[in-house]
Amino acid sequence: MSDIILKTMDLTKKYQNKAVVDGLNIEIKRGEIFGLLGPNGAGKSTTMNMICSIVKPTAGSIELLGKNPWKQKREVIHRIGYIPQDLAIHGKLKAWENVELFTSLYGIKGEELKRTVEESLEYVGLLEKKNEFAKNFSGGMKRRLNIACAIGHQPDLLIFDEPTVGIDPQSRNFILEKIKESNKKDTTVIYTSHYMEEVEAICTRIAIMDNGKIIACGTSKELKELVSNGEEDITLEEVFLTLTGKSLRDSIG
Ligand code: ADP
To answer: Which helix (H) or strand (E) holds 51?
Structure first.
């Protein structure tokens, strides 16, 4: 099997003739935790939505797990787990019912489904709350349940779209630890965020995105070397500022 999990070639999305994703070329290898870092409106979610065949590209192409996700959707969809920015869970269902609903969509049934639901809930630390209604959960618990719904079918690639926005620090740390843990089990991860500290803490490689374009891509060390002039303790914020002329913190809406 190829080591390239995802490749985008000149991937473009236009709305009203304006490119919100503008000729994106990225290549992600098996086992990476690949960070897509950029301010709100940079085009991160649109990119993820095109990769997951939710939004149709205007131009360019995507190779996901060696296939075209638009033409071979059924073959790739069960190998990816997408944790969207907007919660996908149903408040009127119990925690276990939510996980069962999503996991069963991948054709998992019977005893295997029962076991998988328990394992997914345990993984996100919600097994003891399995009989509680999702609507009564805190923001952090809802995010964790959202993750449990996306991992039951044991995907090769997990895509997280800003999973820590608006949650408490404890849930945030829990989620970041779990992402590192899932990666140790050979799952490739794409992590989009506008929080540079998070991206730096967990990602093996980072692409900096602004105005629909990738401005730079590399390890945190490589990105810093791009602009450092030999200074040791430069931050990713300073890298972003130097490359775009904007502050990442100011651009967060
Ligand atoms: P990010 O995830 O980096 O915050 P998005 O991909 O959500 O960025 O959005 C990129 C740009 O595309 C924004 O300016 C947003 O307003 C615009 N956009 C996203 N979806 C649509 C849509 N359905 N119609 C028009 N504009 C859109």
So the answer is: helix 44-51
